[in-house]
Design brief:
It contains seven helices and no strands. By secondary structure, the chain is mostly helical. It has a single domain, classed as Ferritin, core subunit, four-helix bundle (Ferritin).
Length: about 200
């Protein structure tokens, strides 16, 4: 009986590890496409409004996509971005396709709407990245997710600043007011040089 219990424990542990591993891989694919979605939204906004916040952040999202591509390759996964020929606005994940359509539709109305769309996007990204961070025990992957969270927090602050320059306030749409306030009131956190994520000195986040 004792041997049976030990075997059952081992098998259960192996099955749980396999489930967690598959979930981790699915999240890597999701975040790869989510960073692409952000890039695509900001490219569309920049085409319309020709504003440096969109051009700068879209460049950052290209880098963020490349970080997640490293993990797609490391896990030997079928990259959805490559599979879709990296076409703008095309996603395997239906929820990301819907969010892209929503944000671009609203952001193309006015410049204020574009800044609000960008802020909402970064809220979503921050929460998704925090969830991804919580579910993995891989230290290197955690480092990547932490970097992306810090970068998205910087982007969120940039959109809020641009709204303030228009004399407009921004209230969080997805995250709690407390979490939003903590991000807005904490500047930069020393992540500008992409430390720890295979970065070159001087690159923007």
């Amino acid at each position: 009986m004792r041997v049976v219990l030990i075997l059952f424990t081992i098998i259960s542990s192996m099955l749980n590890a396999q489930v967690n591993d598959e979930k981790e891989k699915a999240t890597v694919l999701r975040m790869r496409e989510e960073e692409k979605m952000a890039r695509d939204v900001y490219l569309a906004m920049n085409d319309k409004w020709d504003h440096q916040v969109f051009s700068h952040i879209s460049e950052s999202e290209i880098y963020h996509m490349s970080l997640m591509k490293i993990w797609v390759d490391k896990f030997n996964l079928d990259d959805p971005v490559t599979r879709n020929d990296d076409k703008r606005g095309v996603f395997t994940d239906q929820s990301l396709r819907n969010l892209y359509n929503e944000l671009t539709a609203s952001g193309l109305q006015t410049r204020e709407d574009a800044f609000r769309a960008g802020a909402k996007l970064e809220e979503v990204d921050i929460l998704d990245l925090k969830a991804a961070l919580a579910e993995t025990s891989n230290a290197d992957l955690q480092s990547t997710y932490r970097y992306l969270i810090h970068a998205s927090e910087n982007h969120l602050r940039a959109f809020v600043r641009n709204l303030e320059a228009l004399g407009k306030d921004y209230k969080p749409v997805v995250m709690s007011q407390k979490e939003f306030d903590e991000i807005i009131n904490e500047q930069g956190r020393g992540m500008g040089n992409r430390t720890g994520c295979c970065m070159k000195s001087g690159e923007r986040n």
